[in-house]
């Protein structure tokens, strides 16, 4: 069986290029759009927050959305260590 080498049609942007290609939104605005109350989040600056798990019970009758859990954000030089779950 012959091995074929795939060549991307264009350069895949890095994570930082993707992140910097759009303006950041304040986390309070994102939380409000998601139906999360101010008392259900702990702010870490203007753009980061932890969300109380109690919000799951309060919003249990709402339609499900998409959830991405980033469990590691510093990959090794080999690309290992960056883990996401859908």
- Cα gyration radius (Å): 18 Å
| Poorly predicted regions | none
Q: Kindly state the mean pLDDT as a whole number?
A: 81
Number of helices: 3
- Any idea what the shape is? elongated
Order of helices and strands: HHEEHEE
| Sheet having the most strands | 2 strands, antiparallel
Report the structural category: alpha+beta
Distance between the termini: 35 Å
**Spatial strand arrangement across the major sheet:** 1-2
Number of separate structural domains: 1
**Relative helix content:** 10-25%
Q: What's the total number of strands?
A: 4
Beta-strand percentage range: 15-25%
Structure characterization notes:
- By secondary structure, the chain is an alpha+beta fold.
- 20% of the residues lie in helices and 15% in strands.
- It has helices at residues 15-19, 27-33, 54-58; strands at residues 41-43, 49-51, 69-72, 83-85.
- The strands form 2 sheets. It has a two-stranded antiparallel sheet. Strands 3-4 form a two-stranded antiparallel sheet.
- The two termini are 35 Å apart.
């Amino acid at each position: 069986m012959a091995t074929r080498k795939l060549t991307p049609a264009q350069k895949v942007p890095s994570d930082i290029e993707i992140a910097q290609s759009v303006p950041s939104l304040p986390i309070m605005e994102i939380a409000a759009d998601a139906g999360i109350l101010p008392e259900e989040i702990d702010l870490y600056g203007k753009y980061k927050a932890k969300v109380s798990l109690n919000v799951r019970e309060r919003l249990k009758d709402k339609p499900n959305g998409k959830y991405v859990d980033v469990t590691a954000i510093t990959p090794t030089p080999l690309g290992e260590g960056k883990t996401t779950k859908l």
